[in-house]
Amino acid sequence: DRLSQLLEQAARDKQLDEKAINKASQSPFRAPMIITVVAHCEEHHKVPRWEQIASASCAVMAMQMAAVAQGYNGIWRSG
């Protein structure tokens, strides 16, 4: 329910119409499982930003491959 509320608020913040707001709030309930990943990158002289993003991306890919090995399937979405 919390993800639904966050997506609804984001749609309202973008001043979308009511149909789009409703679609956004209902979107988390379309899939049987949702994995949400957020990468918080910090400037560091030894680990550049691109490497932090690549590391997070690889972690997500590994999770997706583990899910596929267990019979699940999935897609990447961003935004």
TrEMBL record:
Domain (Nitroreductase): residue spans on this chain: 8-79
Q: What Gene3D superfamilies has UniProt attached to this entry?
A: NADH Oxidase
Task: Indicate the secretion signal residues.
Answer: none
What SUPFAM superfamilies would the database entry show? FMN-dependent nitroreductase-like
Q: Which Pfam families match?
A: Nitroreductase
Task: Mark the transmembrane ranges.
Answer: none
A GO term, aspect molecular function: oxidoreductase activity
Name of this chain's protein: NAD(P)H nitroreductase
